[in-house]
């Protein structure tokens, strides 16, 4: 029970992810079979659908945009501030911070991670590890979207007697950029709205909000 | 609220399990999504 409560936030989102992915796969399967029926083709088995690029391209285009969102949010909050937003550092605190603030090198605490105490490349990698991993997941899921989108487009081209196009040509097509940008615009809108709305709005009890009684001009994260 | 493990108690296995589970989900998901189109499915 204690283990569940200690890790409840991750477990809740893990469960929501699985439920939504299963829901997407079933809805996508039905939609795909409707499309096949309209073309006078036999329906596809569920197993065949979830191992097809039709399913993968829809999953990957959402993955890439979500990880781009967090990559840019993490990177932008190093250098840019928004006065009054709990998502931002306090104005004047822009930048990567001092070794003392960040508790690295000689300023590491006895229980600091060993790579925070280390010097050179290990400390640099660990100091940027969240951005590195989020950026890698973004690039790989964007690659997956482009590969799967290319397969789907070539399959549709074949149905209409059109020639296949290579991947390098696909990544310049309106299909690839429409799939990409329709997701990016919504992510940027949501992040911007979260930063701006949280200046004046509150959610009591949420770590994403300032305390209810904190003034509008104050940020939740104050410098030392 | 005493059902929680206090921070002063130090690291617990639970958070490491959570971390590596999410890394595994991401790694398996990415490998799957790259492999499917590469085999032409």
Q: Which descriptors would you attach to this protein?
A:
heterodimer; A: 224 residues; mainly alpha; elongated; B: 41 residues
Description:
The complex is a heterodimer of chains A (224) and B (41). Chain A is mainly α. Chain A has 2 domains: 1-51; 53-224, no CATH class. Helix content of chain A is 65%, strand content 0%. Chain A is elongated. Chain B has a domain at 12-38. Chain B is rod-shaped and about 50 Å long. Chain B is mainly alpha-helical. Helix content of chain B is 63%, strand content 0%. Chain B has one helix spanning 13-38. The longest helix of chain B has 26 residues, at 13-38. Classes of the chains: A mainly alpha (224), B mainly alpha (41). The A-B interface holds A 1-3, 5-7, 10-11, 14, 17, 51-53, 56-57, 59-60, 63, 111, 137, 140-141, 143-144, 147-148, 150-151 and B 3-5, 10, 12, 14-15, 17-18, 21-22, 25-26, 29-30, 32-34, 36-38, 40-41.
């Amino acid at each position: 029970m204690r283990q569940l409560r200690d890790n409840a936030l991750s477990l809740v989102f893990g469960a929501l992810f699985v439920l939504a992915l299963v829901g997407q796969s079933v809805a996508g399967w039905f939609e795909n079979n409707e499309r096949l029926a309209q073309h006078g083709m036999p329906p596809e088995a569920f197993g065949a659908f979830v191992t097809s690029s039709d399913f993968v391209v829809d999953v990957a285009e959402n993955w890439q945009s979500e990880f781009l969102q967090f990559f840019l949010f993490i990177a932008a909050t190093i250098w840019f501030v928004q006065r009054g937003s709990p998502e931002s550092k306090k104005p004047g605190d822009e930048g990567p911070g001092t070794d003392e603030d960040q508790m690295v090198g000689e300023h590491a605490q006895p229980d600091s991670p060993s790579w925070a105490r280390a010097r050179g490349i290990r400390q640099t990698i660990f100091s940027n590890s969240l951005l590195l991993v989020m950026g890698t997941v973004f690039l790989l899921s964007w690659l997956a979207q482009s590969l799967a989108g290319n397969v789907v487009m070539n399959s549709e081209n074949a149905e209409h007697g059109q020639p296949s196009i290579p991947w390098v040509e696909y990544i310049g097509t309106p299909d690839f950029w429409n799939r990409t940008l329709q997701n990016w615009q919504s992510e940027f809108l949501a992040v911007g709205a979260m930063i701006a709305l949280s200046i004046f709005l509150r959610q009591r009890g949420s770590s994403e909000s300032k305390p209810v009684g904190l003034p509008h001009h104050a940020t939740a994260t104050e410098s030392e | 609220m005493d059902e929680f493990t206090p921070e002063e108690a130090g690291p617990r296995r639970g958070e490491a399990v959570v971390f590596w589970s999410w890394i595994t989900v991401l790694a398996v998901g990415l490998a799957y999504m790259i492999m499917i189109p590469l085999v032409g499915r």
